[in-house]
């Protein structure tokens, strides 16, 4: 049931049987724009939502994991890729779904990759080859645009959501 | 009880009565190094842990809130201060307690502030006046050091944990 626990100021989900209070918190997604010799690594999703569409290696940060370690783990799980983190590219907030995305700039340590269980295929794309109309989520587009902007201006300050989004 | 739910790969806390699965996720702390005319705003904590010690205005991001809005809300709640965000200063990971801290650079919109319910006092400090030995948490020290470094070098790329920490 939903109620305001004693000493709290907001409604929380509480189990009427055991009294467990479910403090809902925003979730952290960690991911990266991974490049190799000027091309970008993308994964085609094998799972819903947006099965068949292309995305960055990214996913939920786990407990007891640093943000950059999480981004490296996701590249390993989704693309069997070893990456090195170059810096933080962007922090995107998606308050509608209580999500904060930490997107890093990274590069492949070796040009080896393969689809993990959550990917149909993994590939490197030149900027003119990216399947722009088949990207899985708006934030994938944001990150690719921000990466290209950072690489061309050499301004590596962390980006926020695009204006108005 | 603790068990691995069907289709999952990790142990989760599950209520034996109602079947509720508590997916534990890392928590996001949002805060800011707030300045006004070269001085830094700090809050002396009125609550445990570290009651009586000085900290940045910072706290847990709420659901349906963007990260920068959360940082502004914390400044309002803890210091009755209106702030403007200038950029992201740092992302600190504290995996031992499953916490990711997003610390912004910000400035006071007006030189007005007052202790909120969680603060004993709020004050502006010059760099030589900061109570370095009475800071509440290591990450407060990290953020102040990183802020000073960014301001002096004009390198505003987001900082990570200090090396080895």
User: Based on DSSP secondary structure assignment, what is the total number of beta strands of chain A?
Assistant: 10
Q: Detail the poorly predicted runs of chain A.
A: none
Strand content of chain A: 35-45%
Distance between the termini of chain A: 33 Å
**Backbone shape of chain A:** elongated
* Contiguous helical run count of chain A: 2
- The whole-angstrom Rg of chain A is 18 Å
Mean residue pLDDT of chain A: 94
Structural features, described:
2 copies of one chain form a homodimer. Chain A is of the alpha+beta class. Chain A is 18% helix and 35% strand. In chain A, the strands form 2 sheets. In chain A, strands 4, 5, 6, 7, 8, 9 and 10 form a 7-stranded mixed β-sheet that branches. In chain A, strands 1-2-3 form a 3-stranded antiparallel β-sheet, with no helix packed on it. The mean pLDDT of chain A is 94. At the A-B interface, α1 and β8 of A face α1 and β8 of B.
Task: Give a brief rundown of this model.
With 165 residues, chain A is α+β, with helices and mostly antiparallel strands. In chain A, 18% of the residues lie in helices and 35% in strands.
Please tag this protein with its features.
three-stranded antiparallel sheet; seven-stranded mixed sheet; alpha+beta; 2 helices; 165 residues; homodimer
Write the layout of secondary structure elements.
2 copies of one chain form a homodimer.
Chain A: E1 2-3, E2 12-14, E3 21-22, E4 27-36, E5 39-45, E6 54-55, E7 58-60, H1 67-79, E8 83-94, E9 99-108, E10 119-125, H2 138-153
Parallel strand pairs in A: 4-9
Antiparallel strand pairs in A: 1-2, 2-3, 4-5, 4-7, 5-6, 5-10, 8-9
């Amino acid at each position: 049931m939903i109620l305001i626990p004693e000493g709290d100021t907001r409604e929380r989900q509480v189990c009427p049987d055991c009294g467990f209070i479910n403090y809902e918190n925003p979730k952290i997604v960690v991911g990266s724009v991974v490049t190799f010799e000027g091309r970008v690594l993308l994964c085609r999703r094998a799972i819903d939502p947006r099965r068949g569409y292309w995305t960055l290696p990214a996913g939920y940060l786990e407990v007891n994991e640093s943000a950059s370690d999480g981004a490296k783990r996701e590249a390993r799980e989704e693309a069997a890729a070893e990456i090195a983190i170059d810096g933080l590219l962007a922090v995107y907030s998606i308050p509608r779904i209580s999500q904060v995305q930490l997107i890093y700039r990274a590069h492949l340590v070796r040009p080896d990759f393969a689809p993990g269980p959550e990917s149909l295929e993994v590939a490197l794309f030149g900027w003119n080859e990216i399947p722009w109309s088949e990207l899985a989520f708006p934030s994938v587009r944001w990150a690719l645009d921000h990466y290209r902007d950072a690489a061309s201006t050499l301004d590596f300050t962390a980006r926020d959501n695009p204006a108005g989004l």
